Amino acid sequence: MSGVEAYPILSYWHSTKPIYSCDFNLAERKSNKFLTCGGDSRIKIWKFKDIQELDEINETSSNVDDITSSIKTHFRKAKDRINDIEYITTLNGFSKPVNTAKFSPCGKYIAGCGDDGYIIIWEEIDEESLEKYKKELAEKYAQLPQEQQFFIQNQLKNDISKIINPYNFPVKFAENFNDEYEDEYSNINDIKQLYRIIKYFPVTNLSANEQLEIYSLDWSPDSQHLVIGYMNTYIKIIDINESQQPYCVVKKNHNDVVQGCVWDPLNELIISMGADRAICIYKPKYTNSKLTDLKLVNRIVKGELDTSGKQENIFAQVDFNFFRKLQFSPDGSLLVLPYGIYKNTNGEELNCCHIFHRANLLRGLNKPIAIIPNLKKRCLCVSFNPNLYKNDSSLERSVLGLEYKMIFAIATDDEIMIYDTNKLECLMIIKNLHYYPIYSMSWNSEGNKIIISSKDGFLSTIDFKTYRFGDIYIRKIENEPMDIVNEDKKISTEEVKVTNLSQPSIINVLQIRKKQ
């Protein structure tokens, strides 16, 4: 499709280990800073270089023969893509693989969790404080003779460790995989950015010999709380400002591993999703401005997917070690859930995504308002473009009745599909980016780039270079309440289900043969 490019980036991001999660920092608009985490037990911070930096790189390589350049293979382009990336720093502290890491909405914090059962929260050291630290270190080492250069390097490493871990938490360090992307400070100028650990604790009682793995977490809109879901079927709410007892709420409403959880951007709902094929809908309860409880509004296992009113399972059965990455739309009006299934008229179970309206979730209704059907493979994760766009002027009626449109991507094992909320039609399909299943994806703040991570240990990008989703829509009232969807006005599933899509544009980026 014109204006869209999609390529894997051929680099060993996490020492050839799987990349379980990736996330852009949406608070730093236009910075294109993002994180990745994975099987090497580390979180790494990166950024895409800005246009000026890329122009300088391109100018340097402009001597390459035009003919040679024009016949560059996809492999060559994919390998060159690493030049677009700048490595910033590594966050250590986990002894086992890191399953999920996310920037807070304010952009100041990073939270990570994984198989060792610990939650670690980092705070970015602001530029002014970092420069102060670097100046103090420079003055300290200026008094030492050059012959002690080796000593200086070791001392610098120790001093940085004290800055990173000022409270001396007993953090653990995983095996070193000889990663090319690892912080090696030979001098003070090597320090680009630092994050200090402000919280470090296990999610459960380690002496109880419980299963520890944490599969999901999400930030509250105010960046003051975390919801986490883990192996022993519980979800917990963490107050990041509480030092003595960080867990303010603990709930057990799943019968199996909690594989995904998400916090409503309007702060009215928290949703968890488990291997028991259920989603649980909670409302946070506050006492004197402190979160003290969660009220279970509904637990959905079965729903009505046709006019007969018959209740059917609406989520697929999957192994416990999968992540279910659901997401709210940026305005909070819609919740898109992966791993959906529905039965066709022949009784066959088909893969799909279910879309719920927040008002119906609050009312305890089990019926989705829309379905993305007929997916060739299971849907693994969902990600929304963070922007709202003006409706197309030629549109007579928006399927979901919104006065603006939103863009979202859904990923199956080997495809990324882009949809808008105007017609719920597939705008484009991107295929063959990875050899192994996709684990995670994230949009940048400008809504013109997606990063995708995979079990194969590589990252890929979709760049909407000149492709436009529309003009940005500015809401008049921030966090305005959503109208209740009345029964008589509610959009039926059958009305919204798109079974006869017009043929979408397909971007088939790599001619590769899948491993069986």
Per CATH, the architecture is 7 Propeller
> How many domain units?
1
The Cα radius of gyration reads 24 Å
What share of residues are in beta strands? 35-45%
Amino- and carboxy-terminal Cα gap: 29 Å
Please give the CATH class: Mainly Beta
On the 0 to 100 scale, the average pLDDT is 84
Strand order of the largest sheet: 24-27-28-29-33
**Uncertain runs with pLDDT below 50, 5 residues or more?**
57-71, 477-503, 510-516
Approximate shape: globular
State the CATH topology: Methylamine Dehydrogenase, Chain H
Biggest beta sheet summary:
5 strands, mixed
Q: What portion of residues is helical?
A: 10-25%
Quick take:
The chain has helices spanning 51-60, 66-70, 74-80, 127-142, 149-164, 358-362, 493-496, and strands spanning 4-9, 19-24, 33-38, 43-48, 85-91, 98-103, 109-114, 118-124, 195-202, 214-219, 225-230, 235-239, 247-251, 258-263, 270-274, 279-287, 290-300, 302-304, 311-313, 327-328, 334-343, 349-357, 370-375, 379-384, 389-390, 404-405, 407-412, 415-420, 426-431, 438-443, 449-454, 459-464, 505-508.
